[in-house]
Specification:
The chain is of the alpha/beta class. It has a single domain (about 25-270), classed as Metallo-beta-lactamase, Chain A. About 20% of the residues lie in helices and about 25% in strands. It is built from six helices and 15 strands. The protein has helices spanning about 5-20, 100-110, 145-150, 225, 240-255, 265-270, and strands at about 30-35, 35-40, 55-60, 60-65, 70-75, 90-95, 95-100, 120, 140-145, 170-175, 180, 190, 200-205, 210-215, 260. The strands form three sheets. A six-stranded mixed β-sheet has the order 1-4-5-8-9-10. Strands 11-12-13-14-15 form a five-stranded mixed β-sheet, with helices on one face. It has a four-stranded antiparallel β-sheet with strand order 3-2-7-6. Mean pLDDT is about 95; it is low at about 1-20.
Length: about 280
């Protein structure tokens, strides 16, 4: 019998698929994914006029933290991958548009959602939780007040409960301290910053080459908002938001960390996107 000329390539592809998960890095890495943009219809809740802003658009990135001991997704974008229709180049939800599924972006760097160790969300609003159901097999890191508001009816109009419903039964760690050291070595710390939502949090990363970075969640939305010290009118607790901002600003000065405002459309456009990474 002649050998099947396709057997070799098929076997090679099968072996490659089995070994598709990226190997743990030797040091901390941060991947930035383009999870879409928000065409903000009204800027008055941010106490800013359109002419006050460089752009009214907001970015909606997702982040993958790759550590020698595991991986963590930080936020999952506004638009679920399931909203992409066959052949479509974009997908939408409310006033958000995504140009590429998150699963496809993960695959480009060798990961599947099932490979991700932890999921952490800055907060429960719709534009940060779109693909949360993809990570129902990960361990969810969440504060009790945030989890409570996510699963209490009637649901907040500021979210899409169907897009995180599978987290109800996910393996969960309730964060009980202001700072939570994810991998135990001080390089990935989730910091409490309530006010925008009951259990809002930000992410501190100690990157060897890039230096320390704080990823903001919705501590701020526009850089102009930060520069003018404006508290949006739609905060869950404005006084808490002000206190959280003061604490994080003090932390930035103490550590020399950069603040990456997740929704800063102009600054986000300049960040390296996966498959490139920060280390």
């Amino acid at each position: 019998m002649k050998p099947d000329k396709f057997a070799g390539p098929i076997l090679a592809l099968a072996l490659a698929a089995c070994a598709s998960a990226a190997q743990p890095p030797k040091s901390l890495r941060l991947y930035v994914f383009n999870c879409g943009s928000l065409d903000i219809p009204d800027t008055t809740p941010y106490r800013l006029k359109k002419e006050d802003l460089a752009t009214t658009f907001m970015s909606a990135p997702c982040f993958l933290v790759a550590h020698p001991k595991g991986t963590m997704m930080w936020d999952t974008g506004p638009v679920p991958d399931s909203n992409f229709k066959p052949g479509a180049k974009t997908a939408t939800l409310r006033y958000a548009t995504a140009v590429k599924p998150l699963t496809a972006q993960l695959a480009e760097i060798g990961y599947k959602p099932s490979d991700i160790t932890y999921l952490a969300l800055s907060h429960f609003h719709w534009d940060h939780i779109g693909n949360s159901n993809l990570f129902a097999n990960s361990t969810w890191l969440v504060r009790q007040k945030e989890r409570d508001v996510m699963f209490t009816e009637p649901y907040s109009p500021r979210t899409e409960p169907a897009n995180y419903r599978l987290l109800r039964n996910a393996k969960t760690i309730i964060i009980k301290t202001p700072d939570y050291d994810v991998f135990g070595d001080g390089t990935v710390i989730i910091k409490s910053a309530p006010g925008h939502s009951p259990g809002h949090q930000v992410l501190f990363l100690k990157l060897a080459k890039t230096g320390p970075v704080v990823i903001s969640g919705d501590l701020y939305h526009y850089p102009e908002e930060r520069a003018r010290h404006l508290i949006p009118t739609t905060e869950f607790d404005p006084a808490q938001s002000a206190a959280s901002r003061a604490a994080i600003e003090a932390f930035l000065k103490q550590t020399g960390a950069q603040l990456w405002i997740q929704h800063d459309f102009t600054a986000n456009a300049k960040l390296k996107k996966a498959p490139q990474y920060y280390e």
